[in-house]
Amino acid sequence: PLPRYVSIRAREANVRRGPGLTHRIDWEYRRRGLPVEVTAEYGQWRRVRDADGAGGWVHHSLLSGTRTGLVRGDGPVRLQAGASDRTALRAMVEPGVIARIESCDGTWCEISIDGLEGWVEQPALWGLDPGEVLD
What we know:
- The protein contains no helices and 15 strands.
- By secondary structure, the protein is mainly beta.
- Strand 12 and strand 13 form a beta hairpin.
- The chain starts with a strand and ends with a strand.
- The mean pLDDT is about 95.
């Protein structure tokens, strides 16, 4: 279904002006795991949009179905031991960190970052629809 969230699979992914190798490369994504939203499809090409609203066309082989989230906010986000702000604090996570999303209940998401696991409030992540549930 469209739109949907995926992540960048490759270390470098060219973003083109149109769906095909003949179209100009506008820039490259250079962060493996970065979440992007697929907003259109044309053959083997996907039009994507990132957290900053920038977009373009990327070949499907450079994308992964792995769900990730980009930590957002004005300051560090609390990584809790459970799905509550009353559980133990595991870490403070800086905005811009990419986390693998393990599950979400619509309010809290269980994430992992380089082996560190915990829960963050869902609005702290870009790469999900508001209230989205993931098993």
